[in-house]
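Quick one: RNA helicase from Scopus umbretta, structure tokens please.
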Amino acid sequence: EIGLEVLAVQRVSKAQAWQRTGRAGREDSGICYRLYTEDEFEKFDKMTIPEIQRCNLASVLLQLLALRIPNVLTFDFMSKPSPEAIQAAIEQLDLLGAVERKEDQLVLTPLGRKMAAFPLEPKFSKTILLSPKFHCTEEILTIVSLLSVDSVLYNPPARRDEVQSVRKKFISSEGDHLTLLSVYRAFKNVSGNKEWCKENFVNSRNMMLVSDVRAQLRDICVKLSMPIESSRSDTGNIRRCLAHSLFMNAAELQPDGTYRTVDSHQLVAIHPSSVLFHCKPACVVYNGLLHTNKCYMRDLCVVDADWLYDAAPDYFRRKLRTAKN
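--- reply ---
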């Protein structure tokens, strides 16, 4: 309903518990100890809810449309997601300019067909496809690759002060995306030196993975005959490009010092791991929301509200109208 993805700790289902038990006797006879009472076991759900009924379906629908499935709305999924989830995914693809209606059928636009070529979330495919317009494809490829793997930075709690002083040289006041970009550039300058990684608390294995992902994404861009330019030191274009593709994930600073998402007016906060944690920029876009004791925005970039309106004027007009109503 509010487009929030939550990683919540939940009870296993009975099916999962029995599956675990099977592991105990796989190689030899074994015993599985269950760390809960039989009464508690009886309260578990019989089966786990399939993931397709719990997650964002934008990528799934984009792939179905790319496979030329005649009508995705009536597609016979084995575990059918709710009509609301399918509708929300279509709306998201529509806002990104990936789909259109033709004779009562939902089809991919030329942009949507290109988006389906990337093994990424649609919003990140769109970011890459928009980057030539802002002359920053090289940088966007790096940023998207960094966001596609587990964190490349590690923060040992015992050495917190040391980590903070070492990180200062990479930190960008414009947000996490540009901070990660400067870490990657420094990593490339030392040719991935492991000693450098250790000194700077950078996970060298994940960084190598970023390089692999980036090479794959760059190959796809070449196949799509995209011009690949670099914006060099101009970070404004990179932030503009992120604003134009992540406009659905935007939040504005309120007069009382809190943040609310532009789309559902939900109360959110900047995650403590963000470089913007102690700042109060007027407008930001974020990669995702994480719900723990509060609803936190992760991976932020400082943007200009005007860029968001330029990116999707109809969407923001509609949002303003519902807010006034």
